């Protein structure tokens, strides 16, 4: 009987395996926790870096927005200045328009036509008068059409003058001033400034 070992060696072996298993499980759990913690720290660092980049980009965007607003303001003032320069140029071109118009009318009017009223609205002239014959009025219309100063002559009305015993016709005609004599002024209705 001395060869029989009564010690619970299997139980001791199981206990030892259990301790090894728990130690291995604890070290794996610790390693997993450390890995998760390191990943969390890494992600947090990446988020911090990205937030820093985003803040920098926001600052740069704000600076660029300010520059864009300044550029827009400069562009608006440039356009306003260009409009004023165009207006001044148009006014300089058309400043002698009235003497040129009157001189040209005096040169091309045939005898027998009398002006009673001459109105100018922008570049349109409205002429009312009397004519001793339709032929003289037709000659005046041809002279207006051939003129370098006037364009688009149109007769609005021809009526017999009941007050005249000589058969005089009253007429009303409109014609435009050529753009090289009096350029059309573009006036802005919203701002009240000339364009």
TrEMBL record:
Pfam families: PilN. The keyword Transmembrane applies. The keyword Transit peptide does not apply. Keywords: Membrane, Transmembrane, Transmembrane helix. GO terms for biological process: type IV pilus assembly; type IV pilus-dependent motility. InterPro entries: Extracell_DNA_Util/SecSys_Comp (IPR052534), PilN (IPR007813). The chain crosses the membrane at residues 21-43. This is PilN domain-containing protein. It comes from Opacimonas viscosa.
């Amino acid at each position: 009987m001395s060869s029989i070992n009564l010690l619970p060696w299997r139980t001791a072996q199981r206990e030892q395996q259990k301790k090894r298993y728990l130690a291995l499980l604890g070290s794996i759990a610790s390693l997993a926790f450390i890995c998760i913690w390191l990943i969390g720290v890494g992600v947090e660092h990446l988020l911090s870096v990205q937030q820093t980049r985003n803040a920098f980009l926001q600052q740069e965007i704000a600076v660029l927005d300010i520059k864009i607003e300044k550029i827009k303001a400069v562009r608006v003032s440039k356009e306003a200045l260009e409009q004023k320069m165009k207006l001044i140029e148009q006014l300089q071109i058309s400043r002698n328009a009235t003497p040129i118009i009157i001189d040209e009318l005096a040169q091309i009017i045939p005898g027998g036509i009398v002006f009673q009223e001459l109105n100018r609205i922008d570049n349109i002239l409205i002429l009312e008068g009397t004519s001793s014959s339709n032929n003289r009025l037709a000659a005046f219309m041809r002279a207006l059409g051939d003129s370098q100063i006037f364009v688009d002559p149109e007769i609005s009305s021809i009526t017999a003058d009941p007050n005249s015993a000589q058969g005089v016709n009253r007429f009303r005609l409109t014609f435009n001033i050529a753009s090289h004599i009096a350029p059309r002024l573009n006036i802005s209705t919203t701002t009240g400034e000339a364009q």
